[in-house]
Write a structure and sequence with these properties.
The protein is mostly helical and 68 residues long. It has three helices and no strands. Helix 2 (12-34) runs antiparallel to helix 3. It is elongated. The chain starts with a helix and ends with a helix. The relative contact order is 0.17.
């Protein structure tokens, strides 16, 4: 699971790329879960929370940029 401090040090482009990658992984995990091929069910939760952390960080940065 990504650490919040690690995410904060990344640029906006890096965050967007990681978000895209995590969404793709989330899709694959959902597909594996539907076909009963999922090896590590806890990974779904980790990916979902990391996606939420990235989106929150992006919204904070957007709000700060709009304020400035």
């Amino acid at each position: 699971m990504a650490n919040t401090e690690d995410l904060r040090t990344k640029t906006d482009d890096q965050l967007s790329a990681e978000l895209t990658e995590l969404k793709r992984e989330q899709f694959n995990l959902r597909f594996q879960a539907a076909t009963n091929q999922l090896e590590k069910p806890s990974r779904i939760r980790e990916v979902r929370r990391t996606i939420a952390q990235i989106k929150t960080l992006q919204n904070e940065r957007a709000a700060a940029a709009a304020k400035a």
